[in-house]
Amino acid sequence: MLDFTTDRGRSMSEIRKDIVTGVWTIIAVERGKRPHDFEKQSIKKNSEGCPFCAGNENQTPPEVLAYRTGQQEPNNSKWKVRVVPNKYSALKEQNAVETIKGFYETITGYGVHEVLIDTTDHEATIGKMSYEQLELVLRALKERYKDISSDDKIKYVQIFKNQGAEAGASLQHPHWQIIGVPLMPENQKQIIKGSKKYFQEHSRCVYCEMLRYERNAKVRIIYENKYFTLFAPYASRFCYETWIMPKQHLYDFSRLKDEHLKSLAQILKESIQRYEKVFDQLAYNICFMSPPLEVNVEKYFHWHIQIIPRLGNLAGFELSTGSYINPTPPEMVAETLQKVAKKVR
């Protein structure tokens, strides 16, 4: 058996646990970078040769899902939304799940890593996309989330979008990523722990209570539609951070119905349009905050989306303490994003 706790040769990725904090790190052996690979590069904006553009389907692994008009052969160029395995995935479904314990603890790099391509339009953004197209994207994300979650070896599924080079994107063509891992990340453990504690003490979902408080206070609410609320969280970590939260207690993305997806597409587009009016070519991350798959959290966890603009880098204080310095009060964020409402109609 390969000994992961020594410095001997390694042929596959590993997920290593910090012995002090319990935080897991994916050591992506197959994506190992040499010094010159770290040279700062701008995002590739030219559509020529883009592997995500229609007509270049042979530049990606075979699709696992695609929405097309009518009956058509897979992997052709007549698609609306397309999902493929990540060509440079750090985790592999072919790997066995094995935990190796010595002085350190390691799990073999089993997992799922997929890319969802939003549209054939290379320069599209969520703010410029039609409601119908964005609804298709959300429907595909839900379908892949449910399928990946059905794997007994997967314990947590993360859906996210990196928009712009500062947010981690290397290609301009709009896309999402879906990663399933064989463990529950430490951040999610803390979220579940805090949510459960509040429920045990108050017999209510803390997120439902948070949303009720914010809607009554009316100082950090930015926009609402039938099923969702957009607001700036009270203890915002990042400049112009916002959350989208269901008004109804829904603990899992897979529980959203078609009417919810339609409403979510509307408020997500509205949110990004407001950002695009305030900032020029803003980089941001969109993170779906989902529950762990092996723990029953239905009563106290509340699925939601976090939008995190990349308006500055984490500095020494944040990296060393895990706390944040945010120079922009969320009340100011809400006021600013409220004022641009007429501009996005």
Automatic annotation (TrEMBL):
UniProt cofactor(s)? Zn(2+)
- The residue ranges of the Galactose-1-phosphate uridyl transferase C-terminal domain are 195-306
Where does this protein hold Zn(2+)? Answer: C50, C53, H122, H173
Residue numbers annotated as active site: H175 (tele-ump-histidine intermediate)
Q: From which domain of life does this come?
A: Bacteria
Going by the UniProt record, its keywords in alphabetical order are: Carbohydrate metabolism, Galactose metabolism, Metal-binding, Nucleotidyltransferase, Transferase, Zinc
Stored InterPro entries? ADP-glucose_phosphorylase, GalP_UDPtransf1, GalP_Utransf_C, GalP_Utransf_N, HIT-like_sf
Output the SUPFAM superfamilies linked to this UniProt entry.
Answer: HIT-like (SSF54197)
Biological process GO terms, please? galactose metabolic process
What EC designation does it have? Answer: 2.7.7.12
GO MF term list: UDP-glucose:hexose-1-phosphate uridylyltransferase activity; zinc ion binding
Q: What EC class does the entry list?
A: transferase
Occurrences of domain Galactose-1-phosphate uridyl transferase N-terminal (ranges): 11-180
Output the NCBIfam families linked to this UniProt entry.
galT_1
Q: What is the protein's given name?
A: Galactose-1-phosphate uridylyltransferase
> Which gene carries the instructions for this protein?
galT
